[in-house]
Design brief:
about 70 residues, three-stranded mixed beta sheet, 4 helices
Amino acid sequence: KSGKVGGIYEKARNHTNHHQMTEFLRGQASKIFDDVAQNDKVVLVNKNSKPQNIIISYDRYCRLKENGADI
């Protein structure tokens, strides 16, 4: 992978917000999704204290794809 893509990954890692799965189960999903979309955030979703999923904005997804990310 190119250094440019690696730079995007590194930037994302440094700005990742962590949320527990229970937040989504308690009706916080809409709030979290809005925050991700409006502020171009990266969210790591943990289940039982283990990483399960990453949520990114559609704009970030498009940038990653344009830069050659295999996602």
